[in-house]
Amino acid sequence: MRTEGEESDLQPTDIGNPDYFHKVVDCQWACPAHTPVPEYIRLIAAGRYADAFMINWKSNVFPGILGRTCDRPCEPACRRGRVEEEPVAICRLKRVAADYKGDIRHLLPRPAERSNGKRIALVGAGPASLTVARDLAPLGYELVLFDSDPRAGGMIRSQIPKFRLPEEIIDEEVAYITGLGMELRLGQRIDSLKALLDDDYDAIFVGCGAPRGRDLPIPGRHEAAANIHIGIDWLSSVSFGHISKIGRRVIVLGGGNTAMDCCRSSRRLGGEDVKVIVRSGFEEMKASPWEKEDAISEDIPILNMLVPKEFTHKDGRLTGVMFEKVKAEYDARGRRRLVPTGEPDQHFECDDVLVAVGQENAFPWIERDIAIEFDQWDMPVVDEVTMGSSNPKVFFGGDAAFGPKNIIWAVAHGHQAAISIHQLCQGESVRDRPPPLVNLMSQKMGIHEWSYDNDISLDLRFKVPHRDKQIALRDIKAEVELGFDDKLAFAEAQRCLNCDVQTVFTDALCIECDACVDICPVDCISFVENGAEAELRLRLNAPAHNETQDLYVSGALKTGRVMVKDEDVCLHCGLCAERCPTGAWDMQRFLLDVAQAEHACCSLQNA
Amino acid sequence: MTFIPKPKLHHPELPKNALGYTRRDYEGAVSTLCAGCGHDSISAAIVRACFNLELPPHRIAKLSGIGCSSKTPTYFLGASHGFNSVHGRMPSVLTGANLANRDLIYLGVSGDGDSASIGIGQFAHIMRRGVNMTYIVENNGVYGLTKGQFSATSDRGAKSRRGVENKDEAIDLVGMALQLGATFVARSFSGDKDQLIPLIEAALKHQGAAFIDCISPCVAFNNHEGSHTSFDYVREHNLAVNYLDVISGREEITVEYAAGTVEMVKQHDGSILRLRKLANDYDVHDRIAAMTYLQERGAAGEIVTGLLYVDPEPMDLHHHMNTVSTPFNELDEAALCPGPAALDKLNASLR
Ligand SMILES: Cc1cc2nc3c(=O)[nH]c(=O)nc-3n(C[C@H](O)[C@H](O)[C@H](O)COP(=O)(O)OP(=O)(O)OC[C@H]3O[C@@H](n4cnc5c(N)ncnc54)[C@H](O)[C@@H]3O)c2cc1C
Ligand SMILES: Cc1ncc(C[n+]2csc(CCOP(=O)(O)OP(=O)(O)O)c2C)c(N)n1
Ligand code: SF4
Ligand code: SF4
Ligand code: SF4
Ligand SMILES: [Mg+2]
User: Fold this and answer.
1) Any idea which fold A213-358 has?
2) Taking a C-beta distance cutoff of 8 angstroms, is the pair A91, A70 a contact?
3) What was the pLDDT predicted at A435?
4) How far does Cα A163 stand from its chain's mean position?
5) What integer is the mean pLDDT of A289-310?
6) Is B66 among the domain residues?
7) Nearest atom (ligand 1) to Cα of A146
8) Which letter does DSSP use for residue B164 in this model?
9) Which of A22, A551, A556, B88 has its CA 20 to 30 A from that of A531?
10) Closest ligand 1 atom, residue A262 Cα
């Protein structure tokens, strides 16, 4: 917030600060890799799928993978969700770009012609390491990727079920990276970081993920062990083809992503009566709403407020799970506690249990005497900006850095680590971060013509078509979502509000005629006496209650008032600029290209 | 001209009135006037006033003549009745409509050309007859639609965009309305909605002839230096005698004002006008004093705005003519055509 002191008037907004307009592009701001979302959505609407793909590829490295699996932090942030019922299907539009792009290999960077003499080791070949490799390979680094698994991809390959993410997509997008020139040492586990450090690499990136699934040490665990499986171990066994069957009655314990993948996989491997049973309430479950929806639609009930007490067994064989019924109570500080309801315990019979109650980091291969500091939770101490550890040559990223997150965070970490490694290898400070490239350009083509489609679609969010359930449940490799066709993709793309086309105000041109105020469909604009932010927010044409959204404030105008625009629900329709007689408002496209290691990839600015 | 329609999406917290309508439900088609035209602000003020008063749109009739100003009824109250008459003839159409159906709320919208040139006779007569209506002149000092010729309300000495001086004396529609017996007379400025919206509300509630002269800059032809209706000129010369709030019976009055600065005027329909006075000695009930004051301040180059005169107990045309209280469309055939016997009786009474 821009107030100087509690009571003072607001200062004019500094739109020269790239963060100001970046924040207005809610989706891009929320994306850990800051993908220029509206830019690629417009390209999809224009049928330019390859260009849309490349924008994604540059920012988030795995468009086809993320377009099916991303946790999509951008969607809850999407402005459309604040002016209508649901956000734009940003994630599934990303898949559209990947599905229809055609052959893009000629658009990828070329492998470096010669080595720059620097050798980098990357532990793990998951999305974090692959991102570092993608950014550094074109600059001439000699990269060596180690992974204990036989194939590159990390948990993208070992955990995410194929009915959500077909293998070919992983193969294709991993190949785009490995094709840039690097050495892959698959099936080779690193057992000592010390030994690796002794090999004289110029830098080491640790992208080993969070590989350990939490167990549930309650009575009966040992006795019934044969039919109790740790979720992530079971999923990777399924992925690599070691397991292809499960009992008829399955209980999945846990309420996160892993639980959802476990239950849906079970339905495809012989589980007919599959239940998810969760300690917490339905709303507090860690799984995303759409994951829960998908599970429920495959006839998997989700039972809540049940704490597992005991695995029951007979003759050395699992018979079921006993649960205590709980309810939520809140203390004075609003913290939730689960307390027994006092009702009798409830027993559910089953043939197999999948334990998906959490995932942990484990670094048994990192010695604790090599100047890498670990904290009280036995996690490495990692700098959130540079991704550096206390050893200047060792960097962390992805799930290994701050615990289990998701693919897009792994990618974001990878980009930052690549910058740091590049700085380090050039003898520069890793603290010096290159600034983003920013471009602000008027979209005016004629009196009422803009180079973007400013009409606002009233369509509600379109659903991605699904494969017929009976067929999908028969084959664990049959992808459930079929993706948007080009017509649906166009219609969904038109729901995007083009939040990157900014309303730019020029104080000196305004004659305070009110035309913009009168036309604005969502009452964003006010001309008022200046004041302190909190009080001024309530004096606007529509009260600006959403404090996470900025106010755009002009300097003093002729009447002494200021123009205040509440960015919250602006539709970027451009009507203010169309109705302004003097051009005081203009619609300008803001393109922010987050820095990567020496513009490792193609620049967006020429897109 | 704007090519896309105004998007239907609105602010998530946009309030609804007692009828369940938002302000947006009182809008019309998107304006085709020049960007920045004062007339569009007046349209926006009418929308807000009708929303605030919770008027059912289908009970309003909007009528106009010819001109940019007279085009505006297309741009507000899209669900109301409308009649776009020939140039300067809106008053007679409005009078006829009002006689046929006194239950509708009549809103006449006109321009300075439409009312002070070709339609000046009609203007004069609708005022002196006391037709129950709100009559707004969107006064820009020019014929906007025909590309900016001086209109009859333009001040002597005002300059055209080309620098030519107006040599003719101006017609002051406010002065005429006062003199001809309008029972609610106000002047305002399109650039001051705080003043304008409540004035429109009060006029709509007024049960007699209500006239608002609203200065409304023509950004295309009359917003230059030397113009007397430009944004800058009006802001510099505006002498607001009061601001008002329209309070319907059920609202509580909570704010306290210093003695002498506020006057409560109870209207015939029970609503209250709370006048916040800026010129303490100005009396909104004294027609003669108002005329004198306007002449004085006008001679000094000031533009007096605010509620200038109100008669809280107005009489209207229907009262003067002792007409039947039921609208024609609700009278049955027997009442409308009482037959030859009744005609004979009437004729006999006139012999
Ligand atoms: C069941 C499940 C479903 C998920 N679904 C999604 C989803 O839909 N969307 C999403 O965004 N995220 C999802 N995630 C999370 C996501 O997979 C991870 O956050 C992401 O893969 C982390 O990437 P990373 O590069 O840090 O590590 P990982 O992907 O975990 O890769 C680490 C790699 O390092 C290797 N390795 C570890 N230690 C060593 C060693 N000592 N030597 C050599 N190699 C080593 C491992 O074999 C592994 O291949 C899911 C996770 C699980 C468990
Ligand atoms: C009978 C007739 N005479 C002349 C005209 C030409 N004409 C059209 S609009 C107009 C003047 C409108 O001026 P005003 O009422 O002030 O409206 P503005 O456009 O300024 O809002 C004239 C003279 C006409 N349309 N009809
Ligand atoms: S672009 Fe302008 S008119 Fe459109 S919603 Fe935003 S502020 Fe309002
Ligand atoms: S339309 Fe333009 S000139 Fe008029 S108030 Fe808005 S910004 Fe100022
Ligand atoms: S010509 Fe003048 S009055 Fe007509 S629309 Fe344009 S600005 Fe308004
Ligand atoms: Mg005119």
Assistant:
1) FAD/NAD(P)-binding domain (3.50.50)
2) yes
3) 93
4) 20
5) 96
6) yes
7) 43
8) P
9) A22
10) 1
